[in-house]
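Raw record, unedited: Phosphoribulokinase/uridine kinase domain-containing protein
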Amino acid sequence: PLFVALSGPQGSGKTTLVKELVKELDQRVGLKAVALSADDLYLTHAEQVILANTHKSNTLLQYRGLPGTHGISLGVQVLSHLARQNEHINNSVSIPCYDKSLYQGRGDRMDELHWKTVTGPVDIVLFEGWFLGFRFNWNASTQPNWNDILSSRSESQSGSQPGFTSICTQDNLIQVLNSLVEYNQQWYPFIHAFIHIITPQLDWIYDWRWEQEQTMKHTANTCNLNTMDTVGLSRVQINDFVDRFIPVYRMCLPRLISN
């Protein structure tokens, strides 16, 4: 199958677009497309707790979301199985599912009983994730302006709040960016084409991610998807959550867009 990676900031509509594309490709041109999200490849809650405790000094690794918080081997397993899906008529692939509403919004991978099973030939795999296509090559001769990368967010969002320097250090960020090497080496070789949704202002992500959280909580409570507390994250927690992504966007987006 053709593997297409779709990236864009949280709340930019990646998941919705992929769902619509799956339907349109089937109904209009008779192509079978499979949706895969990098979000569904996050570490389990237990694994994330271990990661956070192992790197207590790195605030960027305390919760899911950033490079380094995904199951790389799980991703390779799913991608490789999808790549071989058409080799035999009886092949099937299990697609993981991650429930972000569990553990009061911190999330956990769902039991395999709830994973989606793909059977039969596949024409296209639509792989979406906010950072897909990001690369980081450390070069001491072309060091970035760390003051700009770690500076405060705009006044409309921050007010009197501290800037990004209070959330992460240069070393914290470099550790996360270095994690991209694994994705580059193990996930990207499967991908034939990358598409990125450009967002004019990164500040919009704060509101988009909050809207996303509200929708997730409403859906989880309405459908009674689980028996655990689905209160989710508060607006303050969402802002804190998004804060941790902005320095990575600032480091990687210019190169991605220019290329």
